[in-house]
Q: What sequence folds into this?
């Protein structure tokens, strides 16, 4: 199996920046892609970004140009760099891993991002 844990969530003022981390462990070789989603209180989960093992990335139109997914292969860690944060970005941010071997998806517990003045 794959274990994921997010970190980096914080309280930040509007217009600020944060970089979230997603550290993977376990059967990392089985991971085909890693992505980020978020869920605000009372709202449905929203997909944000995805990176496949070949380095291809996709970002949701709603955050394209502000959020960027990246990876540090040596650390088995994926990142979500967020700029120009808005109050509407307040949510619990979670990373997920797609495992191709058994068509599984694994989720981290999430990290809270609060954008407020």
A:
């Amino acid at each position: 199996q794959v274990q994921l844990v997010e970190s980096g969530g914080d309280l930040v003022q509007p217009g600020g920046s944060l970089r979230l981390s997603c550290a993977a462990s376990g059967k990392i070789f089985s991971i085909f892609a890693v992505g980020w989603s978020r869920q605000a209180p009372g709202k449905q989960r929203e997909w944000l970004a995805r990176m496949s093992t070949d380095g291809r990335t996709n970002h949701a139109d709603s955050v394209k140009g502000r959020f960027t997914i990246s990876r540090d292969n040596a650390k088995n860690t994926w990142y979500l760099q967020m700029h120009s944060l808005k109050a509407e970005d307040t949510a619990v941010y979670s990373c997920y891993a797609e495992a191709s071997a058994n068509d599984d998806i694994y989720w981290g517990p999430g990290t809270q991002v609060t954008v407020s003045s």
